[in-house]
Specification:
By secondary structure, the chain is mainly beta. The protein is about 5% helix and about 45% strand.
Length: about 375
């Protein structure tokens, strides 16, 4: 269980192969009684179908409740836990529903849960056996519960992109900044985005309506990706959770209005006046923003003072990792001279820090001092 007090709670299940099988909006559901996650696959999933040439190997599905039935439960390890963030590593395999375990196609994921609703996900997919060719469904997807037999428990999420207000089963439009999931029944909403460079792999949107069997999903798709023996690919994406009524939670409306929140990840803010680390593990394009962890990476042993130019992004709750920090974690930082609360911790010589609020101005001066 990953608790982020007052904002959300999530749970990663070993039985499902390592999926985020529970997600609660604590702003409006403080007792965590209404699970928004898909009861079969969780909030985040990858897959599914092969091309006709590879259908003898069936569907490739991760995660799913059938992992437990097939004795293919995930190996889960909490690799970091602090007030600043929680990181969970999952090692698993793809399965074909409840029929087949594909031990030749392992999948590993590292979830980084931030207090203000960002979930950065790094995924590694390998192929150690016979070549497998995917259909256009391969990619990261949002997946939600859609209970046909209990309509009162069905949030009825609709999916949209900046150019498509609602798209139906099989939509294969060109990849854009984000996929947005909004419900007419609950305030919790989610957007999914990928680094801009990843559009060479995930070059289209994907929609698969499964409401007849109690789930619903949409996200990014791809060409017919061929995974020959020895294939080894690592990529990342971001889920941003939003809801109404809390200054610590993102609040975005239509897909077009949500673009700045996606661009905070796709075109991260520019930092000057501090040493930016561009070779951190998980920084997939070496620009100083770690896509796999959802944070800017700096280095410095003591007080820092730098300019933060948010660019086209929303400037909402930016997260930082400062390598080599010598002092204690601060409870606040100064933004243009004003105290702003933070979620912060020092873990193994690294200061982990998230501003609990939104940077409203295009360019601000941030000061980080040692805590008391």
């Amino acid at each position: 269980m990953i608790p982020m007090p007052g904002i959300y709670r999530a749970a990663v299940w070993q039985a499902s192969g390592g999926g985020i099988m529970e997600f609660y909006d604590l702003v409006h559901d403080p007792k965590a009684e209404y699970n928004l996650g898909c009861r079969n696959r969780g909030v985040f999933e990858i897959g599914w179908h092969a091309s006709p040439a590879s259908m003898k190997k069936g569907v490739s599905d991760w995660p799913s409740l059938w992992h437990k039935e097939l004795k293919a439960e995930g190996q889960i390890e909490v690799i970091e836990q602090s007030p600043a963030r929680v990181r969970v590593r999952v090692d698993s395999v793809f399965t074909w529903w409840q029929k087949f375990v594909d031990n030749d196609m392992p999948v590993s994921a590292v979830y980084t849960f931030h207090p203000c609703g960002q979930i950065a996900i790094q995924v590694r997919v390998r192929q150690n056996g016979e070549s497998y060719t995917w259909s256009n469904e391969y990619g990261p997807h949002l997946c939600f519960v859609a209970l046909r037999d209990k309509p009162e428990r069905n949030p009825g999420y609709t999916f949209s992109t900046p150019t498509a207000k609602d798209f139906n089963d099989g939509f294969q439009g060109k990849a854009e900044e984000l996929v947005l999931a909004v419900s007419p029944k609950v305030d919790a909403r989610f957007l999914l985005t990928i680094p801009a460079e990843s559009e060479t792999l995930f070059d289209r949107h994907m929609r698969h309506d499964g409401r007849s069997v109690n789930w619903d999903r949409a996200g990014y798709g791809s060409k017919s990706v061929v995974m020959d023996k020895g294939y080894d690919s690592t990529w990342a994406c971001l889920i941003q959770f939003g809801t109404k009524g809390s200054p610590r939670a993102a609040e975005f409306g239509t897909a077009m209005e949500s673009i700045p929140w996606a661009l905070s990840y796709r075109k991260p803010a520019r930092i000057e006046g501090a040493t930016v680390v561009k070779d951190d593990t998980g920084d997939l394009n070496k620009d100083g923003f770690n896509e796999s962890e959802g944070c800017h990476v700096l280095t410095g042993g003591g007080p820092l003072r730098f300019t933060y130019e948010r660019g086209p992004g929303a400037g909402f709750a930016p997260a930082f990792k400062v390598v080599g920090w010598k002092g204690k974690a601060p409870q606040t930082v100064k933004v243009d001279g004003k105290e702003v609360p933070t979620a912060a911790a020092v873990v193994e010589g690294k200061l982990l820090l998230q501003l609990l609020g939104r940077v409203e101005k295009d360019k601000v001066v941030v000061e980080v001092h040692e805590g008391n």
